[in-house]
Amino acid sequence: MRVVTWNLLHGIALVDPLEAPSLAQVAGSITADLISLQEVDRHQERSNYEHQTKIVADAMGLPYWVFAPAITGTPGESWEGATDSHIHTHEHSESGQEQPHYGVGLASRYPISNIEVLRFKAAPISLPLLVPSNPRPRMIKVADEPRVAIIADVETPLGTFTVATTHLSFVPGFNVKQLRQLTKQLSERKNPVLIFGDFNLPGKLAKFVSRWDSLAELPTYPTFKPRIQFDHIIARGLSDVSIKQAQESAEVLQLPISDHCALVVEVTK
What we know:
This protein is α+β, with helices and mostly antiparallel strands. The chain has one domain (2-266): 4-Layer Sandwich (Deoxyribonuclease I, Chain A), CATH 3.60.10.10. The protein is built from five helices and 16 strands. The chain has helices at 23-28, 52-60, 174-186, 205-210, 240-249; strands spanning 2-7, 34-42, 64-73, 79-81, 88-89, 101-108, 112-120, 126-131, 138-143, 147-156, 159-167, 193-198, 213-214, 231-236, 251-253, 262-266. Strands 1, 2, 3, 4, 5, 6, 15 and 16 form an eight-stranded mixed beta sheet that branches. Strands 7-10-11-12-14-13 form a six-stranded mixed beta sheet. The radius of gyration is 17 Å and the shape is globular. The mean pLDDT is 93.
C-alpha cells in the first residue's frame, strides 16, 4: 500500500506563474493508495474557490475522501474556529455552504469508515516565520491557529488500518503536546495505526516524542533544497519487517506546488 503525506500550501506553485501547473495536474502525477493533505483550502478566494481535497482525490483516482477544516475564514486574515458541521466527505455534497475553510484532508483508494475529528486549540502567542513570497521568502510575525486531525479506519487489502492526518502547531511545545494527545487517543486501537502529516517537529523529534516507529527519515523542507524533515509518517502495530521495508522504500517528491516535498512510503503488514 503506497502512502503519501503532502502539505500542499493551499496549492501555491513556487515556479514562474506562466508555467505553473494546476493542482490537478500535479496531483495526477502522484501515485498512491492513501494520501494525507495539509494546508488545504475549500472555497477560498485565494485558490479560486477550489475544493482542494476533492480535486486531489479526483486527479489521483481515489474515490473516498474527507476534508475537515481547522478554521472558517482565511489564515492570516479574518477567521474563527471551525466545527464538525463543516466536515465534507465523498458521500455529501457542498450542501450550499459557501464559507471559506482551511484544514486537512484524507483521500483513499479503499473505503473509509468510523471518521472522527480531534481538535486542538491555538497557542496564545505569535512567532516570526519565514513564508513563501515573490521574489523571495520573507519573515513575518504569524499568530497560531486552531489545529485539527482526521482519524478514520481504512479497509485495505492488507486489512483494516486506523489512520490519522494532521497539521500541528508551529509553536514549540504546543506541537509536542498535540502529538502526544493524538498518539494517546490512538494508543488503544486494535488495528495497525498510521499517523501522517506536517508535525512541525524537525527530524527524529517526532519519533522521540511519540515513541512510535518512524517509517521515513528524510528531509522534506524546503522543496527546492530539502534540509529539514517536518513531514512524518509514524506507525504503531507493524511488524519489524514491515517497518524496515517501509523505511527502505521511503522517498520524497519535489513537486512544483508547495514549499514542502511530498513524503512517500510503501506499507506492508
